[in-house]
Amino acid sequence: MIWVITLGLGVVIGVLLGLLGGGGSILAVPALVYGAGLGIEQAIPISLIVVGVASAVGALPKLRARQIEWRLAAVFTAAGIPATFAGSAVGRLIPESALLIGFAVVMVAAGTRMLIDRGDTGTACSTEGSGINWRRCAPRAIPAGLAVGFLTGLFGVGGGFLIIPALVLMLGIEMSVAVGTSLVIIVANSAAGLLSHLSGTSIDWAITAAFAGTAIAGSLIAGHLGTRADTDRLQRWFAYLVFAVAAYILVDTVFLR
Question: What sections of the protein cross the membrane (predicted)?
Answer without folding.
Answer: 7-36, 42-60, 72-91, 97-116, 144-171, 177-198, 205-225, 237-256
